[in-house]
Specification:
By secondary structure, the protein is of the alpha/beta class. The chain is 47% helix and 15% strand. The strands form six sheets. A nine-stranded mixed β-sheet has the order 7-10-11-4-1-12-13-17-18. The chain has a six-stranded parallel β-sheet with strand order 21-20-19-22-23-24, sandwiched between helices. Strands 14-16-15 form a three-stranded antiparallel β-sheet. Bound molecules: (1S)-1,5-anhydro-1-(2,5-dihydroxyphenyl)-D-glucitol. The site of (1S)-1,5-anhydro-1-(2,5-dihydroxyphenyl)-D-glucitol (H53) has 18 residues, from helix 6.
């Protein structure tokens, strides 16, 4: 180690190495951390050691702000938002933490002086994949915005030992690899062994008389495990406010059952430990609920019980008394996954705190709010009554009582309307009796919101219509948003710098309406040239990455046409594939056909048990294989599948996209957030009138958006009158030729049956009406091509897209929640030091 790199003696005056923000302080801190935490010096450090030292250097600065935030929140008895979510898809921490601290430049310079490759250090981080897709990523954006808006908040969730699987592509098929993200340690979390709570399952309930001779119920469980807290600090941008993400890990209440052990039953003793640890072991890799899966229900109850117990503990430790609980906390249910929290808070208030029903219900009802994220019937959670009875007997009793009191209200309000009573009941009676979690969530909450205007409207008029009739004031909309820190500053630093130049500083990143200032440059040729250069550079980066990872060569001159999201039939990746096949057939028919060169790029994971989605991945790769190797195509078009689409890889895609594919069947995508990420990075959208596409189109201007397809009303109408995909197949020769080409075996080495399940489904059933929108989609793609031929026009459209995306910041969404739903106020933590903000 050189003299300059040796830690100075603690006696020498210097900027504190654990909190200093200058380049010199960061350098010194980095060397100290490499030495004292990793036990390494520069010459022998592995890439992982180099990353860990950087992570700890950032973390020290986080912790200092965190402690100050916690002190302030405690002493001021601040009203606090509790976000309850079974998923958080956080993405890599380091780059975002540096940005939020305002020390990216200083850290980069420090790294250069230490002769470290700054980008390589950032790349080393393995992201915590504690979510499947949109819903989990939304929770992460919301945590980022809550801190940025200085709103005291706690995110509660599960610390899955194995997050969403890593995806590999082998022979065109998806192969799932387990995500051992904790293997190398997680520098961003602090274990809290003293913050743990018992969680009970099974057994029975008993009635007894308490000291006041009142009848009460107690639960005698069959099994008790415990949840231990792991805390991750979440710092806002341009503020010292740090919020808490508290994730629960399940453990045996005692590590070994010594009684079993003493009589020689070693396996029995270890078994209880394994059973307990299994609960937080793995994230279910499915966007839809796992019907009847006992472990999934155990997971939901596990994290909800720990969280509510923790909230009560925090409340009693600060303001108390328990009667004022709902003044201290408001709890947002991110979908129905945490809806058991309603029954759990009731249980604790009734059975542990001796409250009467009315008072407990008043508190519970004032505490909770519920966000609905889907209308898809298969995604609406229900749990068999029999399973609840076995696993959570006390909660089932409470749910029955909530239901009885609720239905009494319905009977009075809607006199003699038995059908309505049956529809609204918390218990579904057709087939096996089921608890309807969405109904529980609505009844137990004082506000219910959908996640885009159309979606909220459909929530009110379809799946929750009866509830809207009863309580119209309870329903509202908050359109989703995404974090501009994550999806512009971290993902697309070149664009971020240009925007900062136009706006004069980085304050646009917490006031995204400032993007409007780009509008005045939309027609300036010099500015346009810079804009295009930024896009080209991102395309080159992506092309390099894809070439190294997949062997597919992309040419940045091509139009990068990207569809990246979960693979699902309603998102209609197959519609995109049909367009590719059509383009290919046109080239084959006329090799001199004048085409805009395009790279069709896909990314996304399929649920491991979702056969049709996995076959779609195989089809995309099979089409890629043929087209990319056909000399006649000669590179005019390319097809590529990015393996392992996650936050980190998404960050490579968004900046590089020219065209964003948002082509779900109208009425099916609740909001979408990828649509916002692409548009914020200057991609133009080809899309249907679905989810937030509608609002994006309105914001950016219809002339800057490629619209096609049926709207939700037409879809409903066509389905009601009996949709026959067969007619489209027979009535449109090009469509028929495209489907027939798949069936011909061209993409499957002569195997004419491989893709049959997919094409048969399209031709015979087509529940997502791919064939009905095919022609309109091809026409819209023609408009895309002609716009792309005119670089000045395209660039103008791209600039205007970014300029008008201010509304889609998650800060705006959180502001709406704070004002209209939560009634919470910012509580700024006094700023410590000057940074780059
Ligand atoms: O939630 C996103 C929406 C998106 C919707 C998605 C979602 C999940 O990721 C998982 C389950 C679920 O019911 C819904 O599909 O449209 O943007 C965030 O609201």
């Amino acid at each position: 180690m050189s003299k300059a790199q040796r830690p100075k003696s603690p006696c020498e005056p210097r900027e504190p190495t654990r909190t200093g923000m200058s380049k010199e302080a960061l350098k010194q801190a980095y060397i100290d951390n490499l030495f004292f935490i990793q036990g390494r010096f520069r010459e022998v450090a592995t890439p992982h050691d180099l990353y860990m030292a950087a992570a700890f250097t950032a973390r020290d600065r986080l912790l200092e702000r965190w402690v100050r935030s916690a002190q302030l929140f405690k002493s001021s008895h601040a009203r606090t938002v509790c976000y309850l979510s079974a998923e958080y898809l956080l993405g890599p921490h380091l780059a975002k933490t540096l940005i939020n601290l305002g020390i990216t430049q200083a850290a980069r310079e420090a790294a250069e002086e230490l002769e470290l490759d700054f980008t390589a250090v950032l790349e080393e981080e393995e992201e915590p994949g504690l979510g499947n897709g949109g819903l989990g990523r939304l929770a992460a954006c919301f945590m980022d915005s809550l801190a940025t808006l200085r709103i005291p908040a706690i995110g509660y969730g599960i610390r899955y030992e194995f997050g969403i699987f890593d995806q590999r592509i082998e022979d065109g098929w998806q192969v799932e690899v387990s995500d051992n993200w904790l293997r190398n340690g997680n520098p961003w979390e602090i274990p809290r062994p003293k913050i743990c709570f018992p969680v009970c399952y099974g057994g029975h309930t008993e009635r007894y008389r308490d000291a006041d001779d009142q009848w009460r119920t107690r639960w005698v469980p069959a099994m008790v495990i415990q949840g231990m807290a792991y805390d991750t600090p979440i710092l806002g941008f341009g503020t010292d406010n740090v919020n808490l993400l508290r994730l629960w890990k399940s453990e045996a209440a005692e590590s070994l059952d010594f009684q079993a052990f003493n009589i020689g039953d070693y396996y029995g003793a270890v078994h209880a430990k394994i059973e307990a640890e299994t609960i937080s072991k793995i994230l279910y890799p499915n966007d839809e609920p796992e019907a009847g899966k006992e472990l999934r229900l155990k997971q939901q109850y596990f994290f909800v019980s720990c969280s509510i117990q923790d909230m009560i503990r925090l409340h009693l430790n600060t303001v108390g008394p328990i009667e004022r609980f709902d003044r201290k906390f408001v709890a947002q249910l991110n979908d129905t996954h945490p809806a058991l929290a309603i029954a759990e808070l009731m249980r604790l208030l009734l059975d542990e705190h001796g409250m009467d029903w009315e008072q407990a219900w008043g508190i519970t009802h004032r505490t909770f709010c519920y966000t609905n994220h889907t209308l898809l019937p298969e995604a609406l959670e229900t749990w068999p009554v029999a399973l609840l009875e076995r696993l959570l007997p006390r909660h089932l009793e409470i749910i029955y009582e909530i239901n009885q009191r609720f239905l009494d209200q319905v009977r009075i309000r809607f006199f003699a309307d038995d059908a309505r009573v049956a529809r609204m009941s918390l218990i579904g009676e057709d087939g096996e009796r089921q608890v309807r979690m969405a109904h529980l969530a609505v009844v137990g909450s004082h506000q219910v919101n959908g996640v885009a205007e159309l979606h909220s409207e459909l929530v009110r008029t379809t799946i929750l219509r009866d509830f809207h009739d009863l309580w119209p004031e309870r329903f509202t909309n908050v359109t989703n948003g995404v974090s501009p820190r994550r999806f512009i500053m971290v993902s697309n630093p070149r664009l971020g710098r240009l925007i900062s130049e136009v706006c004069g500083n980085t304050s646009w990143a917490r006031d995204l309406e400032q993007l409007r200032r780009l509008e005045e440059h939309a027609d300036d040729p010099a500015f346009q040239a810079r804009w295009r250069e930024i896009k080209s550079a991102a395309k080159r980066d992506l092309a390099d990455w894809m070439a190294a990872r997949t062997g597919v060569d992309l040419d940045p001159v091509q139009l990068f046409d990207v569809q990246a999201k979960r693979i699902h039939e309603y998102k209609r990746q197959h519609l995109n594939v049909l367009h590719i096949i059509r383009t290919y057939q046109r080239i084959k028919q006329d090799p001199n056909h004048d085409l805009v060169p395009r790279a069709f790029i896909f990314g996304g994971k399929a649920a491991p048990g979702y056969f049709a989605a996995k076959l779609l991945i195989k089809l995309i790769n099979a089409v890629a294989e043929v087209i990319n190797h056909d000399p006649e195509v000669n590179g005019t078009i390319r097809v590529a599948f990015m393996p392992d689409f996650n936050v980190k890889n998404g960050q490579r895609l968004y900046p590089a996209a020219d065209l964003s594919e948002q082509i779900s069947l109208a009425g099916k995508e609740a909001s979408g957030t990828g649509n916002m990420k692409f548009s914020m990075n200057g991609a133009l959208t080809i899309g249907t009138l679905d989810g937030a596409n509608i609002e994006i189109r309105r914001a950016v201007g219809e002339e800057n958006f490629f619209l096609f397809g049926m709207d939700a009303e037409t879809v409903a109408h066509r389905q009601a009158e009996g949709y026959r995909p067969w007619d489209h197949y027979h009535g449109d020769p090009e469509l028929r030729a495209d489907i027939d080409l798949i069936n011909s075996g061209l993409f499957s080495h002569g195997d004419t049956s491989l893709f049959r399940p997919l094409t048969d489904q399209l031709v015979n059933h087509d529940p997502f009406m791919v064939l009905a929108d095919y022609r309109a989609y091809l026409e819209a793609q023609e408009h895309v091509s002609s716009a792309y031929r005119d670089p000045a026009r395209w660039t103008r459209m791209s600039i205007l897209n970014v300029a008008r995306m201010g509304h889609f910041s998650s800060d705006r969404a959180i502001r709406e929640y704070a004002e209209r739903i939560w009634a919470v106020e910012p509580l700024p933590v006094e700023s410590g030091q000057e940074t780059e903000h």
